[in-house]
Amino acid sequence: MASVEDLLRDLRKQVDALLPRSVDVSDLDFEAHELVLVTKTPAAFAEDGQLIRKLAKGLQKRIAVRPDPSVLMKAEAAETKIRAIVPAEAGIADFWWSAATGEVTLEVQRPGMAIGPQGSTLNAIRAAVGWNPRVVRAPPIASRTIKEVRAYLQSVAEERRKFLRRVGRRMHRSVSEGEKFVRMTGLGAWREVGRSCSMLQTQDSKVLVDCGVKFEENDPATPMFWLGEVQPFSSLDAVVLTHGHLDHCGLVPLLFKYGYDGPVYCTPPTRDILALLAMDYIRVAEMQGQKKPYDAEHVRHALRNCITVEWGETTDIAPDIRLTYNDAGHILGSSVSHFHVGDGLYNVAFSGDIKFERSWLFNPANNKFPRLDAVIVESTYGGKDNTQPSRVEASEATKAVLARVLARKGKVVFPVFAVGRSQEVMLVIEELMRTGQVPRVPVYLDGMIWEATALHTAYPEYLNDGLKQRIFKENDNPLLSGIFKRVDSHDMRKRVCDSSESCVVLSTSGMLAGGPIMEYMRAWGGDAKNALCFVGFNAEGSLGRKLQRGLREMPIQEGGVSKSIRIEMELETIDGYSGHCDRRQLMNFIQTMDPKPSLVLCGHGEASKCIDLAASITEKFGIEARAIQNAETVRFK
After folding, report:
1. Strands, DSSP E only, in 482-534?
2. Half-sphere exposure of 228 toward its Cβ, with a 13 Å CA cutoff?
3. Fewest C-beta atoms under 10 Å: which of 22, 138, 306, 538?
């Protein structure tokens, strides 16, 4: 059985045979899924764009070329040359230099102009300064999360390079002979919502799909990490995230606390949302006097080990498993994760959370694949009576509430989740005010909403086709409208609360479980001119659910003393904003899937909904469908 070193020696011989003698390759090694060539003649690759294509085709590997440190121009001089090469219209905002990888990152306002036709501007930079340029978008709204994530990854570039080399060598180990199998073990979110986690396993590899937390009244629940096949964490080849909500990614840093040091695959927006929400999770636990599940150092470790994958990009993640991400339509960067196991042995897709309908933010979830044998599908609203209004109906209901309340000089408060739901409501309000359907008043964003919105503006390529058209072709991003105002301090929040002017407020938390929303409720809850408008799910036991069911006394704390205030404001619930499919959409997702799977596993829902959805899929489409339980293992092949 050939070793990785034997493989690299063979690849080196092939590289030398494929490249002209004038091209000097000083080093060659695997870094995760890429074969990285370090060269003292980077200009040769910049001048002949066919060289990399020739290597990739000949070696059947993804190729990355890096300059040898000895040929790098000094950063100060290189910056001057780069500014002369890149058109001023590109709007260079910042430079990030990494001598460890020979890479310079250009943060620009218009990435396309910095890249140039067929990458011509990037090639000109390589030829002129030796550095390998990478272009990222400068967020139109300053984002603390993006700034800190990018700065941190630059600061650990050398450690990250070593990590990627270690992953590459592990990934390219030989596969075993003998019987092949593919199986999945449910570790969380099977016949329940929360702590999403499953382990996809072959005879040679183990991959964790999602790693979320379930928030319970006394103690947050973890996936079933104690099962023998999961331990030790060091035996895992990879963690693959479908998206950035805490019930799918909130315990990834915990893996690093207890010994995991492997890769975390996700889209670029998911990485940044993970950083934002995980750090907030720690902060809230500290504020509430609860035990932290992990520390900031574990979040940073997870970020260092993130390997980002774009939609439609296929990458090896283990010796016998390839991953392709597809749009899931749920939140920014959310992905249906398609796994190609073995050499065509089996193909399985994990839906994560999906929306099979074009929303104000996203295109519908993708359900077309080159090959597919099984699909794992969410069942959050999979019950036979789970229907939701359309986005059009939700917009009309929002318009009615705003028009009614603003006409009587009242204030409208939307308790919302920071990521996804907030931005959908923003788009609806922006359109209603821009088109004159409701009065134009200030719309205040409180809590994490501003930062989450900044992330959406940084990744417009992950939005739906209509929004991309407005942003890229018309230079019009509705999320940047002047109606939106950031509440960035306690003093500003107090001024908003004390103002007699009509306004709209979007604030966390979405279920009224604390956060800045409570200040607005305290200030405005007793006035019947105002309205509280729910647009999201309220869990059993939450204050939001109690108000929906008729409670009109809200408990508050004043000076350490428990009191209550009478709620006189109008209470409205607008359905149709959900980022999940309803029953009809879930059935349509399976019915129109191409190719048709032979097996469907229904999870991420209450037990009755998972069972009902599975039975309906089998009855209507003749496809075997099951609602497995946590700790249950299914053998696919």
Report:
1. 484-486, 503-507, 531-534
2. 1
3. 22
pLDDT at position 1: 59
Does 511 reside within a domain? yes
Amino acid at 443: V
Q: How confident is the model at residue 225 (pLDDT cuts 50, 70, 90)?
A: very high
Average pLDDT over residues 335-351: 96
**DSSP secondary structure code for residue 163 in this structure:** H
CA of residue 352 relative to chain centroid, distance:
11
- pLDDT above 90: residue 271: yes
Q: Are residues 188 and 309 in the same domain?
A: yes
Rounded Cα distance between 284 and 290, Å, is 8
3-class DSSP state of 67: strand
Query: Are residues 513 and 435 part of one domain?
Result: yes
pLDDT digits (tens, 9 = 90+) for 31-50: 999 999 999 998 888 888 88
Query: Which band of pLDDT confidence, cut at 50, 70 and 90, is reported for residue 151?
Result: very high
Range of the domain at 93: 71-160
Q: How do strand 443-445 and strand 484-486 relate by DSSP bridges?
A: parallel
CB-based contacts of 495, cutoff 8 Å, min separation 6: none
C-alpha to C-alpha distance for 327 and 523, rounded to whole angstroms: 41
CATH of the domain at 568: 3.40.50.10890
The predicted-structure confidence for 192-210, as pLDDT tens digits, reads as follows: 999 999 999 999 999 999 9
What CATH number is given to the structural domain containing 245? 3.60.15.10
- Domain membership flag for residue 201: yes
Query: Count of domains in the chain?
Result: 4
